[in-house]
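Sample entry (538 residues):
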Amino acid sequence: PKMPESADFVMFWWEKAALETRSGKARRLGFITTNSLRQTFNRQVLEPHLGAPKKPLSLMFAIPDHPWVDAGDGAAVRIAMTVAAAGKAPGRLFTVTEERKGEREAEGRPVTLTEQVGKIFANLRVGADVAGAKALRANDGISSPGVKLHGAGFIITPAEAQALGLGTVPGLEAHIRTYRNGRDLTATPRGVMVIDLFGLTETEVRTRFPAVYQHVLDRVKPERDHNNRDSYKRNWWIHGEPRRDLRPALEGLPRYIVTVETMQHRLFMFMDGEVLPDNRLVVFGLEDPAQIAVLSSRIHVVWSLAVGGVLEDRPVYNKTVCFDPFPFPDTTEAQNARLRGLGEELDAHRKAQQAAHPKLTLTGIYNVLEKLRAGVRIEGKDKETYDQGLVGILKDIHDRIDAEVATAYGWADDPDDETILMRLVELNRARAAEEAAGHIRWLRPDYQNPAGHAAVAKGKQTEMDVAIAETADKALWPKALPEQIAAVRAVLSDMGEATPEQVARQFKRARAASVKPLLESLDALGQARLIEGGRFAA
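Predicted structure, serialized as tokens:
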């Protein structure tokens, strides 16, 4: 389709990548997911409160996902194209619905497009402005990816754990834990454990657990010595990203909720509190089965699929956009009781069937459930999975969860996906306005607001910029500007997201007033991004 001639500028975003080999043939490497980057940049351009020009700017034309083929240059990529013009106006959104290989591939690939007309939002959608949803304080501080090891030597078998002293050396049970990643949950668990020495100095490890120290010295340190990040080299006995902020949220919980970051079906399940989660798991410091019911509902799944990224054909759950802005329903005690029962029933059903049939996987179960919902005849291997997983009962549990959660939101009209998104966006705006006025509906008030303090309305709280107290385990704040930027970037990468004050607390003699402009510079360079509440995300 022809682009508007009056466009102010055109933006191209490369979505997939290929590499030209020495033989001249293109070899596909995989996907570079740039949805988050594209949405962040588009929002900064289109939305005034995020630093856009005061003069309104609208997307007049967009194609979110279009093939770009050039056999002569060995290119086989996908791009998004957007055209913007000054003023407020509806745009034309084109979506590729069919692709065909042409006779001369170098000249392009014939495609079939469908057109929608309306306001085009930063995530290149017409409809609900899900990209404009704001993070809610109610959801703050209880979700994070799991630990990132940066050292395969930390992973051990139960037999190796016993040889290192587990069960005989006092205190070691706190530092050798069961370990789970995404594949352990969706397929067959590996049954491995992990050495977790977070909170111990090198001297303490060597003195209290000499066998463990030697194991990590032999199996982890050589790998860490070649790591480019200085903090990984210096703290070689500790996981690369031990998730300092996550651990307090999980402390004392007998169980917590997890989902696999990248998976075909969006599932939420309880994990035992003694298990240490891998980086590919998104973790929620929540143990209430009513909350696992809400997260497992169609309403939340529709939201997460709309705002999350995609890796190849698998949805990605990014907690910053999928969880932080999501407005949970304001439930009554009776509704909570029913949701708790349904959440327990869902989690227990799946675990019971997997325990009875060790080769039964969650991926297989939900593949059959998807076919069942689509009206596909269940036969052959699928029939075996249907019987072993009691998939008919599982469908009934999910249907009852969907109905109960919709009732909790006050939606009795069975809304379609687009209506769900529009209602959630409106509810997000209402909750953000409530929080700005000082009313916060904490998801876990005993942890997030243990003292029961009333929130202060925006504009009435004075922020003190004080030097952070020095402690022995904090690095000294660098003197040179390049070193300061590198240090801030490394800390933000470890923490995932943080305020300038939280970053400053990681250093001796650092001030939030000095850290904030560095974070803003990283934001401008695309190496960090400003999110709601003055927080920055890596």
